[in-house]
Specification:
Blueprint: H1 4-48, E1 61-63, E2 70-72, E3 76-81, E4 84-89, H2 90-93
Antiparallel strand pairs: 1-2, 3-4
């Protein structure tokens, strides 16, 4: 059977292990927010780096010289006068 002195010695070792465990625990919780932030940034980067940037095609529109209504070139009527070009909508061109 182990002696009482031997048990006390093990108690001190357990106390040292508990202190070391507490120290490690404090360190882990100190760095955890930084590690979580780094993981979030890494995941966001990996999720968005492969996506192609798709731009909406820009359609040139013209404004009616009479009423200001906007429309595509196919919907407007071109009227040339004295070297200048004016665009009119179907309603105002009549």
């Amino acid at each position: 059977m182990p002696s009482a002195e031997h048990d006390e010695g093990l108690g001190n070792e357990r106390a040292k292990d508990a202190t070391m465990a507490d120290s490690w625990l404090h360190t882990a919780f100190a760095y955890a927010p930084w590690l979580i932030f780094a993981l979030i940034v890494l995941v966001a980067y990996l999720a968005t780096r492969s996506h192609e940037k798709v731009a909406a095609p820009t359609v040139q529109t013209y404004s009616c010289a009479a009423c200001g209504r906007r429309g595509r070139r196919e919907q407007m009527v071109q009227v040339a006068h004295e070297g200048a070009v004016s665009w009119y909508c179907a309603r105002c061109a009549d």
